[in-house]
Hints:
With 329 residues, the chain is of the alpha/beta class. Helix content is 32%, strand content 16%. α8 crosses α9. The chain is elongated, with a radius of gyration of 21 Å. The N and C termini lie far apart (48 Å).
Amino acid sequence: MDIYKNILLINFGGIGDEILFMPVIQSLRKKYPNAKITLCLEGRSKSFINLTNQLNDYFCIDIKTKNKYIEMLKLYFRALFGKYDLVISAGGNPLIALLLFFTGIKTRVGYKTSNLSKKLLTHAVELNKNQYASNMYFDLVKPITKTEFELPQINVEEKEKITNSVLVHAGVSKISIMKNITKTLSAEKWAEIIKLLLNNGKNVILAGGPDDEECVNAIRKELANHNLANFTDMYGKTKNIIELAQLIKSSEVLICSDSAPMHIGVATNTKTIAVFGPTDDKTLLPKSDKFIALKNDVNCRPCLWSKRQTSCEKLDCLNIDLNKILELI
């Protein structure tokens, strides 16, 4: 049996992608407790490192910028001189397989996305996108460990639950907005949800990230004349991703969009109700009564990524009956 002492993991994407990748890290740490595990990720997701204590090191490569070939060269030299004996890459780009082959790393694991990857990887794994994304990533470690799949877990301090609490996180990343990707409700509808919860006796907490200021201000305006006795505005008071994760973990229920907070909800085992529009909930939420997709099952959804790269103008998929939230809670 090979004993791996120095492991390189490569996973590009947002914070949500890194959380979904956690079972790979978890299973390797369980199998090789004394190994040095290094994660290569994008700079925009660097704060993810604060959510886990199972990594020894990390470095950032911004592969999706206009300087991507320079960034790939940086990755090559880091991999070449890192003295790694195992590398696992979650990317489907055949150039990554080529790059890793020339590093001389003995064991190279990745997806079978081309003839090149089949020839250059020591373990070319079938890419099955029709499953929960964490399961898809976990397929990469099956040739290396016999560990059973576990849900993503992050390192967050245990806190007592806030009684009768519902945390509302309405935002999505600014990158989504810039790319003309609409996968969340309007601020007016989020305000309706909050009013509905308050009218039914819930203690409602509002949170958001730096990208959500415009949305949060619009929600505040809609709530201006409502009874806010059981409402707590935490926007701007969670200073980093750890504080947000702790707030999510201490809430009884999280209501959010298809976004990084949703994946934090899963990874903290918090009951999560996530609004889904054009994206596929079956690949982004595990099968569980605790993690629920709030959606309008029109015939055209899901379409984003599988059929189109931007959102359509109609967005019938986001015409959701908000009263369902009370039933789900």
